[in-house]
């Protein structure tokens, strides 16, 4: 009788177990019976990555303000509670989405700069430009990487309280490293000029890599944005020429109403 009673309780209790995770076919907070690593429930990394992948697409398409946790939960087929469990908040999710690939690009840039410095000869401006561009171009080779390129371009239109911290955390050390290398390779320019040209290079590659499709509309059948060599050669030659250009004169005299005499 005792055994029968236990079985009845188990049967009665069964439909309630993990009810949240089965709601509308969505996964909820994982059980923590077994652990695959220190302090981490087994299988968490896969679900976590799926949430990040889904959020990356939503943020790239809709921006930070336009994306809701419900959008992400529906796309990832998980509950909103599970997203909060892993990331704490919408901003926490956005932060991890951006830094996940942003840090990869930054680390790749640092490694490429280290390789240039170990070569034994001072790197040329073109070498520096290529080393800066290649990590982002390599990431663009995958569908997920192309999504991140759009997200990264969109970040520059987000409010400062959303964008500044993330951009600095991901890129500031590596960008400063490349700026210093360009200052050494461009002695005819002031520090201000180098910073301007560095910023213009970033703007050029963000636009070129973010799949706006503007170039295909302007030159249908002429350009091939699926050819990484074509993209790299085009933007490298353009940026290198801009970097090597003479220091600017007094641009103020070219503005309306500024002419003297």
In the predicted model, the low-confidence regions spanning at least 5 consecutive residues are 1-22, 31-43
The CATH topology of the domain at 98-246 is given as Tetracycline Repressor, domain 2
N/C terminus separation: 109 Å
**Order of helix and strand elements from N to C terminus:** HHEEHHHHHHHHHH
**Can you count the beta strands?**
2
InterPro entries: DNA-bd_HTH_TetR-type_CS, Homeodomain-like_sf, HTH-type_TetR-like_transc_reg, HTH_TetR, PsrA_TetR_C, Tet_transcr_reg_TetR-rel_C_sf
Keywords: DNA-binding
DNA-binding region: 68-87
GO molecular function: DNA-binding transcription factor activity; transcription cis-regulatory region binding
Account of the protein in words:
With about 260 residues, this protein is mostly helical. Helices cover about 70% and strands about 0% of the residues. It has a domain at about 100-245: Tetracycline Repressor, domain 2, CATH 1.10.357. A two-stranded antiparallel ribbon has the order 1-2. A hairpin with a 2-residue loop joins strand 1 (about 35) and strand 2. The protein is globular, with a radius of gyration of 25 Å.
Give short descriptive properties of this protein:
Tetracycline Repressor, domain 2; two-stranded antiparallel sheet; globular; single chain; 261 residues; DNA-binding; 12 helices
Architecture blueprint of SSEs:
Blueprint: H1 2-13, H2 19-22, E1 35-37, E2 40-41, H3 44-66, H4 69-76, H5 80-87, H6 90-118, H7 125-139, H8 143-155, H9 160-185, H10 191-209, H11 214-218, H12 228-244
Antiparallel strand pairs: 1-2
Helix pairs in contact: 3-4, 3-6, 3-8, 5-6, 6-7, 6-9, 7-12, 10-12
């Amino acid at each position: 009788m005792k055994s029968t009673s236990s079985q009845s309780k188990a049967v009665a209790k069964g439909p309630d177990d993990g009810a949240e995770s089965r709601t509308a076919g969505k996964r909820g907070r994982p059980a923590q019976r077994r652990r695959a690593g220190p302090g981490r429930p087994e299988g968490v990394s896969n679900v976590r990555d799926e949430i990040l992948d889904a959020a990356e697409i939503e943020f790239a398409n809709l921006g930070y303000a336009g994306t809701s946790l419900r959008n992400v939960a529906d796309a990832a087929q998980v509950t909103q509670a599970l997203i909060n469990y892993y990331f704490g908040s919408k901003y926490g999710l956005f932060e991890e989405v951006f830094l996940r690939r942003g840090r990869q690009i930054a680390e790749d840039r640092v490694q490429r700069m280290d390789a240039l410095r170990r070569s034994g000869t001072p790197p040329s401006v073109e070498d520096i430009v290529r080393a800066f561009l290649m990590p982002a171009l390599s990431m663009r080779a995958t569908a997920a990487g192309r999504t991140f390129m759009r997200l990264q371009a969109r970040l520059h239109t987000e409010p400062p309280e959303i964008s500044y911290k993330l951009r600095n955390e991901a890129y500031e050390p590596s960008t400063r490293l490349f700026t210093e290398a360009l200052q050494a390779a461009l002695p005819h320019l002031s520090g201000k000029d180098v910073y301007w040209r560095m910023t213009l290079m970033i703007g050029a590659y963000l636009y070129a890599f973010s799949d706006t499709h503007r170039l295909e509309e302007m030159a249908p059948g002429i350009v091939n944005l699926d050819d990484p060599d074509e993209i790299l050669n085009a933007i490298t030659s353009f940026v290198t020429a801009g970097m090597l250009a003479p220091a600017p004169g007094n641009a103020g005299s070219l503005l309306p109403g500024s002419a003297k005499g």
